[in-house]
Description:
By secondary structure, the protein is of the alpha+beta class.
Amino acid sequence: PKKRVRAGLEDRVEKLIRRIRPATHSERRRESVSNFMEDIIIACFAPVPVQAFMFGSVPLKTYLPDGDIDLCIFSPDTSIKDTWATRLHAKLEEEQQSPHSPFKIGDVQVINAEVKLLKCLVDNLVVDVSFNQLGGLCALNFLEEINRNLQPDHMLKKSIILVKAWCYYESRLLGAHHGLLSTYALEVLVLFVFNLHHAIISNPLEVLYLFLHEFGSFDWDNYCLSLHGAAPLSSFPNFHVETPPALARCPLIDHAQMAAYLEKYNPQKIATDLGAATAGSRASSGAGTPLGGASTPKTFPEEAPTSSALRTDAASSAKPQQQQQQQQ
């Protein structure tokens, strides 16, 4: 009887995930909005070379039905660093008045936070645009690589969707713009669960249970969390991590692997390499952009497409410095 009950619960959870995970029509809609915004961005800054890439939950395919779109503009021309938001704001307002625009645009605003954002509604979808922020693309590809390593059947992505749905619809914990938990923070918590309990996890329901078990009584007032354990807030800035014995014995991602990931997906290192590659390209050809030409493939060379609906779209998981290397 216990096996039948468990099988029944797992089947119901799979059906739930299939209902709330990205559907084909939803992906097409977001892809159309993203392409529309990219065309506007390119037209806005022409002849300055720019490209725009999605990052976050949409290309990772872990967004909820009303999830927003995150776009980042990349350009080697630093002259638009301080004016990009104002110029794009004006361009969007101009497009807003056009009777030929394929999408309705509204609520265009610039948010002067630590990372400047332009926020707008396109076809009733929230779109957040930033500039030259490599961290989002690095995080996207880091999570995609971990998901591939946790095969079969996209266990990490399904677990993120289920935990995110509980946090958003049931506990009202999710929403960085309301001062609540950010999506990336939630993904770190889910990764911690996998890092500690990977040997006993067989389905997303177990991940949700372990998520609630680990963090329902966590001392957030005095500790923060890394993939390898809790760190006392009082120990900052020279913090130390208190790794649980079980995690120290058999982690999914050990310290050596984590160091390799940090090296591979370090935004500062990528930016430095990107600048050097751009300088070399200009010296040899007198032209070129750090993001490569139009024919440059927008994907990691090591990414292998899968047939699953949760596969990351290769065009959305671009790595700018890889593109420049391909161009050279």
